[in-house]
Amino acid sequence: MRAAALIEDHPDEWRAATRHPFLDGVREGTMPEGAFETWLVQDYLFVNDLLSFQSRLLARSPRVAQAAVAGGLVALVDELGWFEELAQSMEPTLDAPRHPTTDAYREFMSGQEEMGYPAGIVALWAMERAYLEAWRSAAPGHPDYRPFVEHWTVPEFAGYVAALEVAVDAVLSEASGGEREEAEDAFLGVARLERDFWEMAFSGGGR
Known about the structure:
Blueprint: H1 3-9, H2 11-18, H3 21-28, H4 35-60, H5 63-87, H6 100-111, H7 117-137, H8 146-151, H9 155-172, H10 177-202
């Protein structure tokens, strides 16, 4: 099993995770009022949760994956700072209540600690790959949102996602049948949650 095969085997789930009216709204400037700001606040909370998940995943990572996972952690710290600077010129505050979808994602990440390492690294890769593809689908972005699209589609981020995929392929090549099943379940869990994240924001509830 390779990372790419997970996408090929589940095209409908993957499309739902990476294509959504929310992203169409970013591209075309047809976003419902307040939806983007709501998403941004919930995404900040998600990144905090991801930082915790990824730091624990690094402690379990084999040598082949350490550089990619550690580099991603540094980038997440910078991303949180970027959110905090951005919030100074926005009406929503970053200490807004967590939406149930955001909590569901945190619970999913916590649950990966009970699974084998292959499921954890696949989950991380799937989150970041979905994010990259989703924002690429919104490119170039309506002028109101173009800086955000550019921020989340930079070559450095694409390179990070590619490095995670190399790590996933290396781990899955040696994984047992049970570990591969857990990894596939993790992939599908991410796809579902990514879809829910866009939908909650677009419908006015937030991520």
